[in-house]
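Bench notes, bay 3.
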Amino acid sequence: MADTGDIGIGSIIRFNGELMQIMEYQHRTPGNLRAFYQAKMKNLINGKQMENRFRSGELVEVVRVEYRQMQYIYAEGDFAVVMDNTNFEQIHIPISLFGEQGRFLKEGMEVKISFEEDTPIIAEAPTFIESQITYTEPGMKGDTATNTLKKATLDTGTEISVPLFFNEGDWVKIDTRTGNYVERIKK
């Protein structure tokens, strides 16, 4: 058990029997009332968000989480097969744990998996990936003056928006948190 002052953004707690991750956490002292902590939490099982007020000094159950770097091998139905690089053990985890980042997974990519005991609860792809454009409308030289974007399909099968001057075969750096291109890469 921990005190409400010991937890912060990113902490994982057990609240009403459910695993919750703290998304926003603020200490508030309104006027002449008692201080409290306002928390916005995300349920790690079903993804629903909720808010709760904790009294200062209230005890909460902090869940001990083990983080492991693993290698993404391939997708099998609704599951991703990942391998532990230390003992080469392969496990199946739901692709839904990756959320929107799951569309950027490539074979051989290092991913971060969080476990509570032996149960995977959070999966994260790398923040930035490099990917090649497999299809887009042809670009024209000089189309750099405006911020106009066009659709492009990546080697992962995902469609993103890129500037007009990008062509098939170009490499781009992508932020997997937002799905936006960051920059063009020379390879």
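Next record in the batch:
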Amino acid sequence: MADTGDVSIGTVIRFNGELCKIEEYQHRTPGNLRAFYQAKMRNLKSGKLVENRFRSGELVEIVRVEYKMLQYIFSENDFIVCMDNETFEQIYIPAILFGPAIKFMKEGMEVKVSFEGDNPIVAEAPVFVELSISYTEPGVKGDTATNTLKPATLETGAVVNVPLFINDNEKIKVDTRTGTYVERVK
């Protein structure tokens, strides 16, 4: 057990029997009252945001989390099969842990997975991925006065809005956190 002074942003704790990741953490000392820590935590199972006040010096259970870089091989039903590049072991990770970024993942990518013991608890796709466009409407010449966007289908099947000058078979960089176009890749 550790006390509230040992907790920081990004720490995983067990709160009310559930695993939570600290997203915001502030030490407050209001006027004549005692100091406390205000924490915003994300429940790792449900994804809900939880707020709580901890007394200064209160005991909390910090969970030891191990991060591994794995290679995404293929998807199977509701799972993503990844390979540990050191042991060549195949690990089945629930697809729901990747969230909406899963539609931008393709075979061979490196993904970051957090484990508590042998159980995967958090999975992150790369922040930026380079994908080629499989289909998009041709842009109309001279229609560049405003920042106009058009839909483009990527090789993974995801649809992203891109500028008019982007054509079929071009590679673009996509932000997997927001699902938006970043730039054209040469």
